[in-house]
Design goal:
Blueprint: H1 34-43, H2 52-59, H3 61-69, H4 76-81, H5 89-102, H6 106-118, H7 129-140, H8 148-157, H9 171-182, H10 188-200, H11 205-213, H12 216-219, H13 231-242, H14 250-258, H15 272-283, E1 295-298, E2 306-308, E3 317-319, E4 325-328, H16 332-341, H17 347-354
Antiparallel strand pairs: 1-4, 2-3
Helix pairs in contact: 1-2, 3-11, 5-7, 5-13, 7-8, 9-10, 10-11, 13-15, 15-17
Organism: Telluria aromaticivorans
Pfam families: DUF1800
Keywords: Signal
Length: about 350
């Protein structure tokens, strides 16, 4: 096994070994090097955040794979933000981005995106982002590590799918598509192996995925960097690499929409100009990802009270009309703290790493 070039250790910590000069080649029964850890983080998730490479190396291949197949709970701050299901298209897009960036359940998010695409569920096909978000939340995520039959049934029976036909023609198609999602050109032997596990376990996805992620085809040196990032993967992996704590993804949804890749739509790669503009603004702290919390003050309304009435009955009382909410401008200290939260520690190093050819691949 090879270690990554030492000069990379002086770049942005989150992007150590991002240059794919170092290719993975670990077996499933041995400790892994930095390059293999990077490969796992790129394929089972949306790339490394600061500290992830060291953590995955310490865990080893099987332990890390199993940790993603039986993932930890969401952090409390993400749970708090997701407590109320997104009821609008904008809210659903922001929820998906927050999960992809901040959730430790990285494989769950990758699989959720895969199955939505496999079943042909995307914006522009009669479904809005809010409807797709509900399908993802209620029918896909709960079943990505269970049986394929339960997953397909839950999606087909979801109220948002009424009158719509699922894509994906057969279980063999599903196995082949799953293999191709994680291995660029899956050899026939790998597909046969996965199909055998699929049949033997009753299409248990955990067993199939464990076989896939510990296979020689997945761990081959030539596999690292053989795929090119689409717009969503590029944006999400860049934000994860920056180390910026994200609580607001509105700006990221706008970036993707302007690049012709709405969050729940068909994904295409960003062009060079779009990547350069986004990375420059991200590195300079001009992409709002963590806004200061303004202080709200209520002002008594000058409007007359509204009468609460029941049809056909006399007025039962009066309800005061709420006054407008005035948002006080953040103090200079709060604004400075917000700017710091939106700016990475090493702006120049981050920009250089994210605009390199290696970062476009995973």
């Amino acid at each position: 096994m090879r270690s990554c070039p030492s000069f990379l250790r002086f770049a942005v910590p989150a992007l150590l070994a991002v240059a794919l000069l170092c290719a993975p080649g670990a077996r499933a029964d041995e400790a892994i090097d930095e390059a293999t850890a990077l490969h796992l983080l790129n394929r089972l998730g949306y790339g490394p955040a600061p500290g992830d490479l060291a953590r995955v190396r310490a865990m080893g291949l099987r332990v890390y794979v199993d940790s993603q197949l039986a993932p930890p709970a969401l952090p409390a701050y993400i749970e708090a933000q997701l407590r109320q299901p997104a009821a609008t298209d904008a809210g659903a897009r922001e929820e998906r981005l927050l999960r992809a960036i901040a959730s430790p359940r990285q494989l769950e998010e990758v699989l959720c995106a895969f199955w939505l695409a496999h079943f042909g569920i995307m914006e522009g096909k009669g479904l809005g982002a809010a409807g797709i978000g509900a399908i993802a939340r209620e029918a896909v995520r709960p079943h990505v590590f269970g049986s394929y039959a339960a997953l397909r049934s839950a999606v087909a029976r979801h109220p948002g799918m009424q009158g719509r036909r699922l894509g994906g023609r057969s279980e063999h198609d599903a196995v082949r598509a799953l293999a191709a999602h994680f291995v660029s050109a899956p050899p026939a032997a790998l597909v046969r192996s996965l199909a055998g596990v699929w049949r033997q376990t009753g299409a248990d996805q955990r067993a199939v995925l464990r076989t896939l992620f510990t296979s020689p085809a997945f761990l081959a040196q030539a596999e690292a960097g053989s795929k090119r990032k689409d717009a969503l993967r590029f944006v999400v992996s860049a934000v994860r690499a920056s180390g910026i704590a994200v609580t607001d993804t509105v700006a990221l949804a706008e970036v993707l929409a302007q690049a012709g890749s709405p969050v729940y739509g068909r994904m295409v790669p960003m062009d060079s100009r779009e990547r350069t503009d986004f990375v420059t603004r991200l590195a300079e702290g001009r992409v709002l990802l963590a806004a200061p919390a303004p202080r709200a003050h209520e002002q008594a309304s000058m409007a007359p009270p509204l009468r609460a009435t029941v049809e056909g009955a006399a007025p039962q009382g009066e309800v005061a009309q709420p006054g407008p909410v005035l948002m006080e401008a953040p103090t200079p200290a709060a604004a400075a703290m917000a700017a710091a939260r939106n700016r990475p520690a090493d702006a120049d190093g981050l920009k250089e790493a994210l605009l390199g050819e290696a970062f476009l691949r995973y």
